[in-house]
Amino acid sequence: MAGYIFRRLLQALPVLVGTTFLIYFMVFAMPGDPLLALFGDKTPNPAVLERLREQYHLDQPFIVQYFLYLGGILRGDFGTSFSGEPVTDILARTFPVTIRLALMALFIEFVLGVLIGLISGLRKGKLFDASALVISLILISLPIFVIAFVAQFIFGIQLGWARTTVSAGAPIQDLILPAFVLASITFAQIVRLTRSSVIETQSLDFVRTAYGKGLSRRRIIPVHILRNSLIPVVTYAATDFGVLLVGATVTEGIFNVPGVGRTLYQAIIRGEGPTVVSFVTVMVLIYLVVNLVVDLLYGLLDPRIRYVK
Questions:
Q1: Domain 87-301 carries which CATH code?
Q2: ABC transmembrane type-1 domain location, by residue (predicted)?
């Protein structure tokens, strides 16, 4: 097990370096001068502009800028935003909010998606199954901003069950409605994936053998059917966590959530290379760790999986 984890960590290094390099290159290649945006319509003093270029290493070639940034990451220094605030402070302020929102959305979509998908798979062709497929198809077809505005209008304005915008500090109760909206992105996919996996697992020999031995459905469904059907669902949920982190940009903008998505969008508009690359670097690290944890969970879901040399 330890050797497997060590090999996975080694494999993650080129992914991390390659991702930061590509993102830094794309930010570097953006047209325009990001420093000029700081002054708005005013004409900056050439001496001040030159001093800012030197401070942010914008007077250096691309490859020099990248290696300076990479060296800073190894020292735990993610650089400074154009507003003068350390990027680590921005990360510390925004990432907990987005991670909390993404975890809530992941919990909602996984629990409801697996439950509805399981019932739909067990009742294939029945009314519940048809209704679940229709609802999932509608959710897949609707853009996230449409779902967000409809949820705001119905649950926030008409019924008054939730706040239409998130207050300062992003308390849990204010994140419930944005979490449901964010979960709707892939909730339908988990329902359909669980349903198809349950239908396929029911036809396997070991399930028929369990029925032949006289085991009750209460034993067969959770232990034999659901457990083996969860492997593709867990894989999808792991990759979906990264999608939720990045895909929260629209949801955070509509509900005024002070998280990563809105901050990252603003940094891209301003051309703040260190801020954009730092945010993406942390997202990639979280994504790699989550995928490693999911790979280790496979051994619990399927006893046939063992991590050997």
A1: 1.10.3720.10
A2: 95-298
